[in-house]
Amino acid sequence: MKSEENRVFIFDTTLRDGEQSPGFSMNSDEKLRFARQLEKLGVDIIEAGFPVASEGDFASVQRIAGEIKKSQVAALARTSLGDIDRAWDAVRDAVFPRIHTFISTSDIHIKHMLKMTREQVLKEAHTAVKYACSLTGNVEFSAQDATRTDRKYLCEVVETVIDAGATTVNIPDTVGYAMPDEFGELIAYLFDNVGNIKKAVISVHSHDDLGVAVATSISGLKAGARQVECTINGIGERAGNASLEEVVMALETRRDILGLYTNIKTKQIYHSSRLLSDITGVQVQPNKAIVGANAFAHESGIHQAGLIRDKMTYEIMTPEAVGVPDTNIVLGKHSGRNAIREHLKKMGFDLARKEVDIVFKRFKELADIKKEMFDEDIEAIIAEDIFRKPDKYKLLYLNVVSGNAAIPTATVQMEINGEVMQEAYFGVGPVDATFATIRKITDTNHRLVKYLVHAVTEGTDAQGVVTVQLRHKKRIISGRGSDPDVLVASAKAYINALNRIESFQYVTMQNGKSLRRYKYVNDHYRENPGCSCRA
Ligand code: KIV
Ligand code: ZN
């Protein structure tokens, strides 16, 4: 039976904990696009970012807060009042804003990272929550590194922040250290030992360093937690966070023993996962639970024979339940515009008329070269031709000479800020020559961190999708390109990464300024505790 008591709130932190891990950086447009999909998926809370981290983060959170109507929009803040102000400024226009403030509570963090005492941390947590509650009635507090925190002290912290007005208290396994049973016991201990615990929703947030984040989260929910923090595809710091699709489908599939439910529209899961991969250029491994390419593939004859008789012989949930399309073979070169528009809708893309026209035109061009067109081809077209912003750099022409009797040489023509430029250069192989020439024309020199090629479908006529990761200061920025010619796809991917770096550059320039200002604000409040000015 579904009742408020057994409802689990889904707090998605793909855009915050997920985005802060290397290779997953997204620009503001990409974050907004993904937030819209999270809303469609039915997540209860979208953690949109950490506004004090940079002007770019602030602006993205603000845009998401202004647009998302159904989900709550949360912004992360440390406990300094300047951070909280910044978070509030970013989310205040949301229909359902939330401030999420955190501080570490384990001795190891308190001593070595914060250089504070337990008493100071307790006071700081209380002041921060009280202050956040003066801005909104929806305040979450996280006790960072809770699983390595002294239990009695953790109880004291939880009790204090609930007294100060926190409506949600999160118990993170920040370093992915807890075993599932142990974590469930910790949550049960809090329920037994914190007097006012019923006044707040208890939340769990697990990292996957030991590969048990989903199990740990579920164990916490069994013990009484009713919010779970997770990410699409399990992306996040280091080994990642608990994966949303795995937690949700475990609750759904084993409701018989867990008795818990969420409001997630499970049919949107597959599209959400694909969209994230398209935006970041990072694919999930084929054997990934729920959303991997093999998650519903049955190779063995025995399994296939069983499935023909009854699907439940080897399938504990259906691919349709998570929105995996029936068959991947779609339309051919004779398909009309309406058929394509309908198919796009089935795939989860609500495109404007003009955008459908663009996809249709590109589809026809590609269908002339390829024998069969697949969903993946359409996704590649959408990623490249619809959601790509007007770019600084554009590829106009590529010619590569290569072979075992030639020095690989690339000739590249590009448009840069409207000006046509051309160069030729050589390299150790055709890809190296292409990238070297692009570097020469654009006068850039970012370190290439990763170069990955995969065919989106089967056959030698398949489109190649190339992912390139470049280092830009402390960030790793991904670029993606697709084309039936792998070298053209490689050039497009490299240029896409350069364009994405451009979209972060503006943010970094502003960043220098804002960090200085906020450092001052934090120092001010630290030196004048309790000061009521809003510097
Ligand atoms: O892992 C963690 O502790 C966090 C907190 C900021 C909630 O991400
Ligand atoms: Zn985390």
Please outline the helices and strands.
Layout: E1 9-12, H1 14-18, H2 28-41, E2 45-49, H3 55-67, E3 72-78, H4 81-91, E4 97-104, H5 107-114, H6 118-133, E5 139-144, H7 151-164, E6 168-173, H8 180-193, E7 201-206, H9 213-222, E8 227-230, H10 244-253, H11 255-258, H12 269-280, H13 301-309, H14 337-347, H15 353-369, H16 375-386, E9 393-401, E10 409-416, E11 419-426, H17 430-442, E12 447-455, E13 464-472, E14 475-483, H18 486-527
Bound molecules: 3-methyl-2-oxobutanoic acid and zinc ion.
Note down, in words, how this protein is organized.
With 535 residues, this protein is of the alpha/beta class. The protein folds into three domains: 277 residues, TIM Barrel (Alpha-Beta Barrel), CATH 3.20.20; 90 residues, no CATH class; 116 residues, 2-Layer Sandwich (Double Stranded RNA Binding Domain), CATH 3.30.160. The protein has 18 helices and 14 strands. The chain has an eight-stranded parallel barrel, surrounded by seven helices. Strands 9-10-11 form a three-stranded antiparallel beta sheet. The protein has a three-stranded antiparallel beta sheet with strand order 12-13-14. It starts with 8 loop residues before the first strand and ends in an 8-residue tail after the last helix. The site of zinc ion has 6 residues, from loops. The site of 3-methyl-2-oxobutanoic acid has 9 residues, from strand 5 and strand 6.
